[in-house]
């Protein structure tokens, strides 16, 4: 299969360094302390945050910092076909740990000792990049909950197909079998929070992908900053009415 045409266009018509269309909404669930939906192309993720609150298991309480519980799951209808349990559940557990680690590096946990923050992420529609979209949704939901953070966290992925570095892979590209990289950044601090690669990759290709995906992360960060600004402006306007 040809992933990049002679005209330099991908299967969905994008240029190699082009992100999919982004959209996001905050405060989507009234029952949660914070919530958000985040879409990257056809991939749609919802996140809800509860806390900081009393620790459910006293034995897990940390007197010096908050603890984070993170649960990632994919809706049965997210891929358009019925999913089987087993391998997918192991992958969900792995991704939950990856997201938890990234969030623990982002949240100012020492400001909320003896408390717990629950983060629930559900993929409503999957078309590649669910890990990145989940982290972006989690950041927005945490911001909506008023959780203090050292910086925003923005995440993106990329891969290498047809001798070309591609930003923000969709499902068809992600299934192409080429090397890929997932990057999470604290953009204001210029700090790498997450770096994952699932396949063998040459150093030259790895460096090219990391640079490309890092720029994608910054573009996602700019988008999310605008979303937060519009949301807070809307809240302020309602308070003045």
Characterization of the model:
There is one protein chain. The chain has 241 residues and is α+β, with helices and mostly antiparallel strands. It has helices spanning 87-104, 130-144, 171-174, 203-240; strands at residues 22-26, 34-40, 43-54, 67-74, 115-125, 154-161, 164-167, 180-186, 191-196. Helix 1 (87-104) crosses helix 2.
Extended strand count: 9
- Evaluate the radius of gyration: 18 Å
What is the overall shape? Answer: globular
**Spatial sequence of strands, sheet with the most strands:** 1-2-3-5-4
Distance between the termini: 57 Å
Biggest sheet: strands, sense, closure?
5 strands, mixed
Average pLDDT rating: 94
Based on secondary structure, the structural category is: alpha+beta
By DSSP (H or I, 4+ residues per run), the number of helices equals 4
Q: State which percent range the strand residues make up.
A: 25-35%
Helix and strand sequence:
EEEEHEHEEHEEH
Approximately how much helix is present in the residues? 25-40%
- Which stretches are poorly predicted, pLDDT < 50 over at least 5 residues? none
């Amino acid at each position: 299969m040809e992933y990049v045409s002679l005209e330099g266009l991908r299967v969905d018509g994008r240029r190699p360094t082009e992100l999919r269309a982004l959209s996001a909404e905050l405060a989507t669930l009234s029952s949660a302390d914070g919530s958000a939906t985040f879409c990257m192309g056809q991939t749609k993720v919802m996140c809800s945050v509860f806390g900081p609150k009393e620790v459910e298991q006293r034995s897990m309480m940390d007197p010096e910092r908050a603890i984070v519980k993170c649960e990632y799951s994919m809706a049965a209808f997210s891929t358009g076909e019925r999913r089987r349990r087993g391998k997918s559940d192991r992958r969900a557990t792995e991704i939950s740990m990856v997201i938890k680690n990234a969030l623990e590096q982002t949240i100012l946990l020492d400001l909320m000792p003896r408390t717990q923050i629950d983060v629930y992420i559900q993929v409503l529609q999957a078309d590649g990049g669910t890990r990145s979209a989940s982290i972006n949704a989690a950041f927005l939901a945490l911001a909506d909950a008023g959780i203090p953070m050292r910086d925003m966290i923005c995440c993106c992925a990329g891969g290498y197909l047809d001798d070309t570095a591609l930003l923000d892979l969709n499902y068809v590209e992600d299934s192409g079998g080429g090397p890929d990289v997932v990057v999470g950044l604290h953009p204001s601090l210029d700090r790498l929070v997450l770096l994952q690669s699932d396949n063998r990759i040459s150093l030259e290709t790895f460096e090219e992908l990391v640079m490309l995906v890092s720029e994608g992360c910054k573009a996602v960060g700019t988008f999310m900053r605008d979303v937060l600004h519009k949301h807070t402006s809307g809240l302020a306007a309602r308070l003045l009415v």
